[in-house]
TrEMBL record:
Residue span(s) of domain Fatty acid hydroxylase: 92-228
Organism per entry: Methylogaea oryzae
TM stretches of this protein: 9-26, 55-73, 85-108, 149-169
Major subcellular site: membrane
Biological process annotations from GO: lipid biosynthetic process
Identification of the protein by name: Sterol desaturase
GO MF: iron ion binding; oxidoreductase activity
GO cellular component: membrane
């Protein structure tokens, strides 16, 4: 366990770099959609905010989710530490439960106007690609980590399960935000076990009824079971508009304006159950 904690940063960084490089190459060789902005116009700010978020978490929090899980195992915190299961079952149950919690958290960030103001920085991206999966406002990242730490402590998830979940969540976020083309038949098959790029892209539509669907990041079952699944965008994947109507200039995607988005005007806002005001 001590070795797991010791090498956690290296393990996570290696997985991140490997998946990032693979998806960036795939996007270059087989893109799904034409770009509105070049990589040079978007990537510096998207990667900068991702780096800022990692530094902020290290400064503000005394432990990672994996570290908290290890401490919980030693101290006997959480549900699974009171009802012992085979190691493999505890891992599977923990990864699945944490994914379900992230699904409901995602819905919450759409449903509560104050949280939507933070989350909309993620949705404002005019193109989806591998960098979009880590484009989140720092305040949202801090709140999300608080939810994750609480879930890990309450569940009593094993440290190994939390590390697996963190790697899966990061890898699948890069995968399902990527601008890659999958054969339709393969996409249909993968959707049974994994959120695909075509499935998640619908969630980034400029249309509220499409953006308020397909909330899953990793496992696709929650959207189907809880009635938030939408198979395809009305305009098709090549014809749909990605982003938000109020942040559509290249200048809106510089880092300084991205960080100020929660406090900018709310014209065209939408959260679950609230439609944009009629033009006039």
């Amino acid at each position: 366990m001590e070795q797991l904690l010791r090498f956690e940063p290296a393990i996570r960084l290696a997985c991140f770099l490997g998946v990032f490089a693979a998806m960036a190459l795939w996007e270059t060789l087989a893109p799904r959609r034409a770009r509105l902005l070049s990589r040079w116009a978007r990537w510096p700010s998207n990667l900068a905010v991702s780096t800022l978020n990692n530094l902020l978490l290290r400064l503000l929090l005394p432990t990672t989710a994996v570290g908290l899980a290890a401490a919980g195992g030693q101290q006997g915190w959480g549900l699974l530490n009171h009802y012992p299961l085979p190691a493999w079952a505890a891992v599977v149950l923990s990864v699945t439960a944490l994914d379900l919690i992230i699904y409901f958290q995602h819905i919450l960030f759409h449903a509560v106007p104050a949280l939507w103001r933070l989350h909309r920085m993620h949705h404002a991206d005019l193109d989806l690609d591998v960098t979009s999966g880590s484009r989140f406002h720092p305040l949202e990242i801090v709140l999300s980590m608080g939810v994750k730490l609480g879930a890990v402590a309450a569940l009593g998830a094993p440290a190994t399960a939390v590390l697996i979940f963190e790697i899966l969540l990061n890898a699948t976020a890069m995968f399902n935000h990527s601008n890659v083309r999958l054969p339709a038949r393969l996409d249909r098959m993968l959707r049974r076990i994994l959120v695909t790029p075509d499935m998640h892209r619908v969630h980034h539509s400029v249309l509220p009824e499409e953006a308020n669907s397909n909330f899953g990041f990793n496992l696709p079952w929650w959207d189907r079971w809880f009635g938030t699944y939408l198979d395809q965008p009305a305009a098709g994947h090549e014809g749909m508009t990605v982003g938000l109507e109020q942040f559509r200039t290249a200048r809106d995607h510089w880092l300084d304006r991205m960080l100020r988005q929660p406090w900018r005007e709310d014209r065209g806002r939408y959260t679950i159950g609230r439609q944009p005001p009629a033009a006039g």
